[in-house]
Amino acid sequence: MKNILFFVLASYICASATAQNYNALLIPDSLTKHANVVGRFEELHIIIKDIDKAIIRHKYARTILNEAGNKYAPYINDYSRLVDLSDIDGNLYDALGKKLKNVKKKDIADFSDDDEALATDSRLKAHNFFYFQYPYTVEYEDEQHYNGIFYLPRWQPERYENFSVQESILIVETPVDYKLRYKQANYPGEPVITQDKDKMIYTWRVKNQPARYVQPYSPPWEETITSVLVAPTQFSIQGFAGSMDTWQNFGTFCQALAAGRDELDDATKKKVHEITDTIKDQRRKIAALYKYLQQNTRYINIQFGIGGWQPFDAKYVAQKKYGDCKALSNFMGALLKEAGINSYYTVIKAGENKTFFWPDFPSTQFNHAIRCVPLGEDTMWLECTSETLPAGYLGDFTCNRPALLITETGGKLVRTPYYSENDNQYSRKIEATLNENGDLTANVATIYKGLEYDDVHNHFHYLNKEDLKKYLNESFDVSSYEINDFKYDETNASIPSITEQISFLSNSYAHVSGKRLFITPNIVEHNPIKLDTSEKRTVDIYYPYSFQHTDTFYIAIPAGYTVESVPKNMTVSNKFGSYEATYAVSDDKISYTRLYKRVLGRFPASDYPEFVKFYNDMYKADRSQVVLVKKTN
């Protein structure tokens, strides 16, 4: 690349300095390895004026190296009643840094932040040059004005996987007497802090960070990258003032937002007593009220101004029969309160496997609300936006992570339930018959529990029959098959389960070669990929939860055939878990059992070669074949 640099510079000697800087040939080779995008330059400038006013100026340029990088080319940013967005500008440059286009105001799209929300003042502005000659560079800048400070942008130079960084800068300006708090991760050293007359200036800078890619079984992405989170101490937003120097004070602010909003109308109060007065057991009372919530309300997102954090009044929910996570969790608390049951509104960072959290840095790290009901030595958790989950079960969306209880005395940081290997199980039994043409007829019965139940529960409740059948027709590792029938039976409990029964026909399941049939008994649960050690492992090995999988497969072999060979039984147990694959043969039947247990854990990168061997041994065993041969007379 560098050997034609002189030619390029000579060709563009009359171009502007900025255009030359965006010449893709000037990118160091170290920044193109594993990269789809190179962040050429970024400056995030946060100017805090007071406890309720801030200006955010953001400018960046990205070079898109290939088709996979196209999704990071468009500009998008949000605005609302509390956030003004202005001064949007942008430019497009070709591979050699020549400016091709400028953003036109008429080309900036403006649309709702949530098309499914009943009502929201949160909107987005977006733009895309739709240029596909690689490499090319997009440059954008804008300015936001915060009318109230409850959160501030997080600086993450390595925004995405396969994204390298040539230079990125965070600048935070505050009044001299302003108490700024910040939390940094994977940043070498401390910020440069200077004073300029009546303001303090904090500066963080990184240069020449190679692209990262998510290695298999890695810790959360946010844990491994450079980032800085800044937060106020004292703040004010839409007339509400508070402090987040401690979780307790953060909770006091949240409590003030919800004060007086848990009063019910007389008709709903009467209904609560009709439901609960004859029930003696507390858990059953809670479950009955939770069922009432599920049957009489639905989740709809509604956000205006501080409504992104303030729950709607319980009487409003009772009347309208809908609400967002805050409103429904608050309404559930009002139902419990009327029944004489104490509970806590709880804020949490939700999302499957999104458990990264800074517990030692009180700040706005939450995106969801649930309900916590203490019961002496036990606790019952309620996901109030779900119309189908059983009372007391959270699932992977909110389990095993920090949550902030909003109590009478302020916030209290706790942890939601962890589901163990014994909770997260599936047990599958397959009864099948094979004919001499290699066709397989099978009946499959599977019981899913705990976190293994989550996806099946969602498919069962939220897919129509046609889409569910389509999903099942893509679930087995068989080249050609058709689902004939399926049904589900769900058991509601604190650790719920669902039984799935399927029958299917697979044509040419077995490979026919002369007088032999080659079959792979494991048709469902395979380790999906092989691992390798060609790239140095840079992060820990991370298993976010434990489980136990059991598969038992019985196959009746066709008349006139006998078993010629079966794989060797395999048993292995180590720090990562255990795996067993066993075979047994009778005159007309083969049985195969697979047992895999995985333990929650975190293991150093130095363990990776051992982990790869264990994983690849399982990969090979999962694909082992049984050979049948036709008997000779």
Write a brief structural summary.
The protein has 633 residues and is α+β, with helices and mostly antiparallel strands. The chain contains eleven helices and 38 strands. The protein has an eight-stranded mixed β-sheet, with no helix packed on it. Strands 27-28-26-25-32-36-35-34 form an eight-stranded mixed β-sheet, with helices on one face.
Keywords:
single chain; 633 residues; alpha+beta; 8-stranded mixed beta sheet; 11 helices; 38 strands; disordered N terminus
What order do the helices and strands come in, and which of them pair?
Blueprint (H helix, E strand, L loop, with lengths): L4 H7 L5 H5 L15 E14 L2 E12 L10 E5 L3 E11 L5 E4 L6 E4 L6 E2 L2 E5 L8 E12 L15 E13 L5 E5 L6 E5 L2 E11 L11 H4 L2 E5 L2 E4 L2 E4 L3 H12 L7 H11 L5 H15 L1 E2 L2 E2 L10 H7 L1 E2 L1 H14 L5 E5 L19 E8 L2 E5 L19 E6 L2 E6 L9 E10 L5 E10 L4 H9 L2 H8 L9 E10 L5 E10 L4 E3 L2 E4 L21 E3 L3 E10 L4 E5 L4 E5 L2 E9 L3 E10 L2 E3 L4 H15 L3 E5 L3
Parallel strand pairs: 1-10, 7-18, 17-19, 25-32
Antiparallel strand pairs: 1-2, 2-9, 3-8, 4-5, 4-9, 6-8, 10-13, 11-14, 12-13, 15-16, 20-21, 20-23, 21-22, 23-24, 25-26, 26-28, 27-28, 29-30, 30-38, 31-37, 32-36, 33-38, 34-35, 35-36
